[in-house]
Design a protein that fits this description.
The chain is α+β, with helices and mostly antiparallel strands. It has one domain: Gcn5-related N-acetyltransferase (GNAT) (Aminopeptidase, 3-Layer(aba) Sandwich). Helices cover 24% and strands 43% of the residues. Strands 1-2-3-4-5 form a five-stranded mixed β-sheet. Helix 1 links the parallel strand 4 and strand 5. The longest helix has 15 residues.
Length: 94
């Protein structure tokens, strides 16, 4: 089962994807302001591609942003493609 762990410091944050005890991917972001986060990188580690892990990382960041009323600036091309494909995420895009 996939587990997403989130850590945030004053200026940066990371969502880590874990499968059992193995880290299989990550999404990193910077805090542009207290109300905005810039997703700068989404990565799935070799051998774990094609399982929807990157999308789950993006969805975890969306849920977090909505929970604390933060908007997202998706600089990462993958996150940008997911978040701009439909109007479902319009509320959290900066």
């Amino acid at each position: 089962m996939l587990t997403i762990k989130h850590t945030e410091s004053e200026r940066i944050g990371i969502f880590e994807a874990w499968l059992n005890d193995v880290q299989v991917g990550e999404l990193t972001y910077q805090r542009a302001t207290p109300e905005r986060m810039i997703i700068d990188h989404t990565r799935v580690f070799e051998g774990f591609e094609g399982q929807g892990i990157a999308r789950q990382l993006v969805m975890a960041s969306v849920a977090f942003a909505r929970q604390i009323n933060r908007t997202i600036i998706p600089v990462c091309s993958y996150a940008r493609s997911v978040l701009t494909r439909t109007n479902d995420y319009k509320d959290i895009l900066a």
